[in-house]
Amino acid sequence: MTVPVKPLLTVEDLRVTFPTRTGDVQAVRGVSFALGRERLGIVGESGSGKSQTGRAIMGLTPGHARISARKLAFGDRDLLTMPARERRDLRGKKVAMILQDPKYSLNPVMTIGRQIVETLKTHEKISTSAAKARALAMLEAVQISDPERVFSLYPHEVSGGMGQRAMIAMMLVCGPELLIADEPTSALDVTVQLEVLDILDKLVADRGMGLIFISHDLRLVSSFCDRVIVMYAGRIVEELPAANLADAQHPYTRGLLNCLPTIGSDRHPLPVLDRKPEWAL
Amino acid sequence: MTSALSIRDMVVTYDEFAALDHVNFDIGTGESFGIVGESGSGKSTLLRAVSGLASFDQGTLSVNGRPYSGRKRDKEFYRTVQMVFQDPYGSLHPRQTVDRLLLEPLVIHGFTDIETRINRALDEVGLGSGFRFRYSHQLSGGQRQRIAIARALILEPKILLLDEPTSALDASIQAEILNLLEQARRDRNLTFVMVSHDLGVISHMCERLAVMKTGKVVETVPRKALENREFSADYTRQLLVASEGFRRG
Ligand SMILES: Nc1ncnc2c1ncn2[C@@H]1O[C@H](COP(=O)(O)OP(=O)(O)OP(=O)(O)O)[C@@H](O)[C@H]1O
Ligand SMILES: Nc1ncnc2c1ncn2[C@@H]1O[C@H](COP(=O)(O)OP(=O)(O)OP(=O)(O)O)[C@@H](O)[C@H]1O
Ligand SMILES: [Mg+2]
Ligand SMILES: [Mg+2]
Q1: What is the pLDDT of residues A105-128, one digit of tens each?
Q2: Contact between chains at A255 and B86 (C-beta distance less than 8 A)
Q3: Please, which residues bridge with residue B208 across strands?
Q4: Is the pTM of this model over 0.80?
Q5: Are A231 and A43 in contact (CB under 8 A)?
Q6: Above 70 in pLDDT, residue A102?
Q7: Which of A140, A188, B83, B242 would disulfide-bridge A192, Cβ 3.0–4.6 Å?
Q8: CA-CA distance, B223 to A265, in Å (whole number)?
Q9: What contacts B187, CB < 8 A, 6 or more positions away?
Q10: CA distance B18 to A40
Q11: What is the pLDDT of residue B188?
Q12: How many A/B residue pairs have CB atoms within 8 Å?
């Protein structure tokens, strides 16, 4: 996949640091990449900085963290110097992120339907009844079989997978140009998972949306994305065409591929990674 | 084989909606039992009804021969049965430190060797004692799930109810957690009831599995049936195809 002349998103030397009681935690340590109108996968172990990379792009880094970059731009617009207000307007409309923790990010005291309607009304001039129709259509599009019922349920009243799809519906309803999907399908059963990926796939193909797909599911990433970035301890350790994931060179990536349990293979205990300190340098 | 968990005709309804519709299970002591099924089919509801987080309207539940009903569970129950939730964000209070989260069950159940147990529990799930005074909102998704597992194991229960315990984890941590769970099961002769969307995980961990759909159990098959493709439910077949990855249509 060649990166187009003018990328949708440019990230250069991004760093995110959290001061904590026991010293600084460097969650992201110099990440650089450019994104076109394509599907970019980010894989990497738990705690490697995938979510914090996404959050920094969105401007959702917690306030006490330190963030720096040589460049962070959405098209021509510099995200680092953009006024907070402008950034907020961008968020939800042009750029959206499906957060890894759907229950946490849905408002617990507002019904699912009302939240989607409010999102629409914040970003578009639209009547309540038109917004409701769009919200129901969106819930249906993410394969919720009973949209009317789910529309009026509170987040704690839906199953894990339904909450995740509600979140996806809310993020897609305004038609963003850039979508960061953080483990968007990890709580979905695999059959629904593929249907949701189909929706994302069409948005990339038909509308030219750029997609950053954060996942720990290697099979899924290699079959769905165009390119894959592998992160380890806050850095990018490898970048590959997704279809060639099996030819990965970095020992971390190779190790990851080897520890998946599969039907019929009887490996007890499963092989685990022997992490080398030099991987984190 | 004595039954660790026996469920007869269990029904859970929300308003008119039957989330569990006359479900029967018998799970033997030391057995590892898997549950798969589409989203919303009632898997979490089943585990929640067993652990007393949801009330069941009809049917019976017995744990090691002791009957339980409604939502009432005694201390003995929680010494026997612990649950790891699907959603590590919802299950751990974000403003509590790891130390508090692990301390709480120990205090409630009157343990005294608290220091040793907390350090051992953190070790067991591959997090060093450096994590002990972190708040749970300062942890990544995978780190939180490991804390949730540590908290479930710290009371040395007999039965673990695991709701998608590794779906939020990358392959390497998943392998570590699955090995850890298997080891714990062997060492302590634990009984597992494990919900997962990943047939690879279920076939690795479980001897038998049930397939659920719209609040009902549609079939129960041995692990071998997955390998030999000997099952009748359509959904099981779909799951198997889907587990091979995404196909651009
Ligand atoms: N508020 C915080 N304070 C201190 N450290 C934090 C905070 N939030 C995140 N971290 C740390 O930053 C690192 C990166 O976290 P991040 O959530 O980006 O990981 P991840 O790659 O998304 O992992 P997972 O696959 O488990 O979701 C982790 O080590 C985490 O503990
Ligand atoms: N408190 C509640 N109020 C109303 N309906 C509920 C409540 N809790 C669960 N339900 C409904 O019960 C059904 C089963 O939910 P459950 O969480 O058991 O599904 P699941 O099989 O675990 O799905 P997933 O794979 O998505 O986690 C869903 O349709 C859900 O909306
Ligand atoms: Mg994450
Ligand atoms: Mg569930």
Answers
A1: 788 899 999 999 999 998 899 999
A2: no
A3: B33, B222
A4: yes
A5: yes
A6: no
A7: A188
A8: 12
A9: none
A10: 41
A11: 86
A12: 163
Does the pLDDT of residue A8 top 90, yes or no? Answer: yes
CA distance B16 to chain A (A): 12
- Predicted confidence at residue B89, as pLDDT, reads 59
Comparing CA positions, the residue from A231, A232, A235, A216 lying closest to residue A16 is: A235
Q: What is the ipTM metric for this complex?
A: 0.84
| DSSP strand pairing (B208-213 vs B32-37) | parallel
Structure tokens at A135: 């919200």
CB contact under 8 A, A255 and B90: no
* Beta carbons of A44 and B170 less than 8 Å apart: yes
Q: What is the dihedral angle through the alpha carbons of A254, A259, A264, A265, rounded to the nearest 10 degrees?
A: 80
Q: Are A161 and A188 in contact (CB under 8 A)?
A: yes
Q: Which ligand is nearest to the CA of A231?
A: 1
Ligand 1 closest atom vs CA A234: 14
With a CB-CB cutoff of 8 Å, which residues 141-180 of chain B face chain A?
141-143, 164, 167-176, 178-179
User: Under a CB-based contact definition with an 8 Å cutoff, are residues B206 and B223 in contact?
Assistant: yes
Average of pLDDT values for A238-245? Answer: 92
Q: Which residue has the higher pLDDT, A5 or B220?
A: B220
Ligand that comes closest to the CA of residue A182? 3
Give residues (CB < 6 A) around ligand 1.
Answer: A 18, 20, 25, 27, 44, 46-52, 62, 100, 216; B 138-143, 170
CB atoms within 10 A of CB A242: 20
Which residues on chain A are in Cβ contact (under 8 Å) with B130? Answer: 22
Q: Look at residue A110 in the predicted model and tell me its pLDDT.
A: 93
Task: Look at ligand 2, atom 4, and give the residue with the nearest C-alpha.
Answer: A157
Report the C-alpha gap between A8 and A143 in whole angstroms: 29
- pLDDT of B173 reads 81
- Give the span between the Cα atoms of A11 and A68, in whole angstroms: 11
**Amino acid identity of A133?**
A
Question: What's the CA gap between B228 and B207, in Å, rounded?
Answer: 14
Across the interface, whether the CB atoms of A271 and B204 are under 8 A apart is answered: no
Residue in the structure block whose two tokens are 């917690």: A62
Residue-level pLDDT at A192: 75
Q: What is the DSSP string of B34-88?
A: EEEE-TTSSHHHHHHHHHTSS--SEEEEEETTEEE-TT---HHHHHHEEEE-S-H
- Could you tell which of A50, A99, A182, A215 is best to mutate to test the pocket of ligand 1, judged by most ligand atoms within 8 Å of the CB? A50
Predicted confidence (pLDDT) per residue in B81-105, tens digit: 999 986 655 667 778 899 999 999 9
* d(CA A138, ligand 2 centre) in Å: 20
